[in-house]
TrEMBL record:
Subcellular location: Nucleus
Region described as Disordered: 227-249
GO biological process terms, semicolon-separated: positive regulation of transcription by RNA polymerase II
Protein purpose: Component of the Mediator complex, a coactivator involved in the regulated transcription of nearly all RNA polymerase II-dependent genes. Mediator functions as a bridge to convey information from gene-specific regulatory proteins to the basal RNA polymerase II transcription machinery. Mediator is recruited to promoters by direct interactions with regulatory proteins and serves as a scaffold for the assembly of a functional preinitiation complex with RNA polymerase II and the general transcription factors.
Protein name in the entry: Mediator of RNA polymerase II transcription subunit 1
InterPro entries (alphabetical): Mediator_Med1
Residues of the Mediator complex subunit Med1 domain: 2-360
Organism: Ascodesmis nigricans
């Protein structure tokens, strides 16, 4: 990795291990088996890297210290895996390696952070944090949640419900911005790293060209287009300047499964490196153990710990499979490319969550009477009435799921109710926009009076199809 290390013993027997690169120096101080201090220093690095270094040092120390069994134990058990420490160190080392004379890749990344932070602060002030995170330009952070470097949260579960940032029940999707060496086979599409003072103007937003009134809803980010830099040849021959050897890349955490046809989307044209292989049907990649056309039981827990009911879900797959790939990184040339890609990533993050509520045995709905579940109860349903009548069926309620990729990305939900079939279309659009539509003849009998907007609102809040089916059933049968 181009690193050098050396060890020094202190006067009191402590040992300091130092890891040195061209730009950064990492010091790790041991007292016995414990890591008592970690410090990281950056040399000749403009921007906030130096000020943010203590946050990076704290992450290194957290990933190095052994995990204790209980607070009352004074002695730790075996040290944890060094995978996280190694991953973070490799990211730093590669950023250092790709830095050349006149190109400090650490500064290049923090310049993106400062520009995106400026946009986020503006959007947060006008829209609020959840909207800025899930529908705006994302929530940028440096050295957060055990990842060294710039990460941008772009989606979270239950996005309509206010929750604390540290709430462990909320799942978050983010990208970690890195620099990577430009592959030799790259023929174009993603440009090399640039090192501007900023990527966005001080005004941040401007009216769209086709908008005469400049309404707030019609504002666009006022991106800047910094020039491309050239650097002297590494041999010292200044008559043959070269472009930087690195490009920006956003690593998806977690990776997402996207249909192949989205490769032609302009925002993701360069996002599918050639080495990504093994496409397969969407649901097979998401849930490898799922038996297509076979019913899978899914327990629906009643809030308050008062029991559960059972549904049986089947993926109806007579239609053409939606071939997809699992994407782990998105190379990009400009932060605006990344912001545009978030609209696609949000769509499939929500789609995966909705399908997982039906098919993933690892995500069985737990007791929702804790954490943010109370707000969902107040917004969507009166749970005391929900539990007032016994509507538990003696056999599992059979629900058929079919994919409708041609409708943004739709999920057709079909099940019986009081002897009549029910069909609902859940439409997941770009940027995680969600709609519920009723196909012609989809609601008959007692289901005809369904409040579709209430169902849609509840599904946005819960992101749980089985839970909302139960609300639907009880509402239609007059049990709410």
């Amino acid at each position: 990795m181009g690193l050098e290390s050396y060890k020094e013993t202190g006067d009191k027997g402590g040992i300091t291990v130092s890891v040195a690169a061209k730009i950064f120096l990492l010091d790790i101080e041991f007292a016995g088996s414990q890591v008592v201090r970690v410090a990281i220093n950056f040399e000749n690095t403009p921007g906030p890297s130096v000020d943010l270094a203590p946050l990076a040092a704290a992450i290194f120390q957290e990933t190095l210290n052994p995990t204790k069994r209980k607070p009352s134990y004074s002695k730790p058990i075996l040290p944890p895996s060094l995978a996280e420490f190694s991953e973070n160190l490799q990211r730093l080392a590669l950023t250092d390696k790709l830095s050349k004379t006149g190109l400090n890749c650490f500064t290049a990344i923090t310049t993106i952070y400062e520009s995106l932070r400026k946009i986020y602060n503006h959007e947060k002030e006008s829209l609020g944090h959840p909207t800025a995170l899930c529908f705006g330009s994302g929530y940028p952070q440096m050295h957060a949640r055990r990842k060294i470097g710039l990460s941008i949260d772009y989606w979270r579960s239950r996005r309509t419900i206010p929750v604390g940032e540290d709430n462990p029940d909320v799942k978050r999707w983010r990208v970690v911005v890195e620099v990577q060496e430009i592959p030799p086979e790259l023929s174009g599409g993603v440009e090399p790293v640039r090192l501007p003072n900023q990527w966005v103007s001080d005004e941040i937003h401007k009216p769209k060209e086709d908008n005469l009134f400049g309404d707030v809803e019609e504002l666009a980010i006022d991106w800047l287009e910094p020039p491309h830099e050239e650097f002297p040849d590494t041999t010292g021959d200044t008559s043959h300047p070269r472009t930087p050897p690195a490009r920006f890349s956003a690593r998806l955490d977690p990776p997402l499964t996207l249909p192949l046809y989205d490769e032609v989307d302009p925002t993701l044209t360069a996002s599918f490196p050639n080495h990504i292989t093994n496409p397969g049907p969407l649901v097979s990649l998401l849930f490898p153990n799922l038996e297509v056309n076979q019913y899978t039981n899914r327990r629906v827990h009643i809030p308050g710990g008062l029991g559960e009911i059972t549904h049986a879900y089947r993926l109806y797959s007579d239609l053409k499979p939606v071939y997809s790939r699992t994407v782990s990184e998105v190379p990009f040339s400009h932060p605006k490319d990344l912001i545009a890609a978030f609209k696609v990533l949000r769509q499939y993050a929500l789609l995966e969550t909705l399908l997982a509520s039906c098919f993933s045995r690892e995500q069985v709905q737990e007791d929702t009477n804790h954490g943010d579940g109370g707000d969902l109860e107040k917004e969507v349903m009166d749970l005391e009435a929900f539990l007032a009548e016994d509507c538990v069926v003696s056999v599992p309620l059979r629900v058929d799921i079919a994919l409708l990729p041609e409708r943004a990305f739709g999920i057709d939900v079909a099940f019986p109710l009081d002897g009549d079939p029910v069909h609902l279309n859940i439409i997941v659009e770009r940027n995680g926009e969600l709609k519920v539509m009723i196909p012609e003849g989809g609601l008959t009998g007692v289901a005809a009076g369904l409040d579709v907007r209430a169902f849609e609102k509840g599904l946005r809040a819960s992101e749980d199809i089985p839970l909302m089916i139960e609300w639907f059933r009880r509402s239609c049968l007059g049990l709410l």
